[in-house]
Amino acid sequence: MIPSAIFNFQVHANGRSITIERSFTAPLRTVWAAWTRAEILCQWWAPRPYECVIVSLDLREGGRWRYQMQGPDGDRHHCFFDYEEVKPESFFSGTTGFCGADGTPIASIPRSRWEVRFTERSGRTIVNVGIHYESQDHLGVILKMGFKEGFTMGLDQLEELLKAR
């Protein structure tokens, strides 16, 4: 039996990876759409009071998602996700990081490789996210930037959005 809610955020002892597991009371198709369709993704991806502004989203192997995290004072943080593998309603992976307004990655801010899996059990959808960094230092930089708090807020916002649907 699946518990009413699952949330697990774990930084691994190797110091180079994070795993996140989150369950949602929604069908797999709905959760997949929330992670892959621009008009839904932009509603939850940025932690409040930031907004996610999607520049482009090309969900395919070799495609790229470009977006901005826009702050209440007008600050903008440009980001990208380069899709490596996409298996609809099951899995996607790729490399992500910060970039300039033109999409050129910023070398001084660490990039990460994500693997995101979706499974449906007992009326819930479980999302498992594996995030891998080149070094412990790179992971430390991202954590100090508030990744855990910000991503947790985003997932909570996704839960709210799914309940409202």
How far from one another are the termini? 25 Å
Could you tell me the radius of gyration in angstroms? Answer: 15 Å
Sequence of secondary-structure elements: EEHHEEEEEEHH
Question: By helix and strand content, what is the structural category?
Answer: alpha+beta
What is the mean predicted local confidence, pLDDT?
A: 94
The global form is globular
Spatial ordering of strands, largest sheet: 1-2-8-7-6-5-4-3
Tell me the major beta sheet.
Answer: 8 strands, antiparallel
Give start-end ranges of low-pLDDT stretches. none
Q: How would you describe the overall organization of this protein?
A:
- By secondary structure, the chain is of the alpha+beta class.
- 24% of the residues lie in helices and 40% in strands.
- The protein is built from 4 helices and 8 strands; from the N terminus they run ββααββββββαα.
- It has helices spanning 28-36, 38-41, 136-144, 147-164, and strands spanning 7-11, 17-24, 51-57, 64-70, 76-87, 91-98, 112-121, 124-132.
- The chain has an 8-stranded antiparallel sheet with strand order 1-2-8-7-6-5-4-3, with helices on one face.
- The longest helix is centred in the C-terminal third of the chain and has 18 residues, at 147-164.
- The protein is globular and about 45 Å long.
- The model has no long low-confidence stretch (mean pLDDT 94).
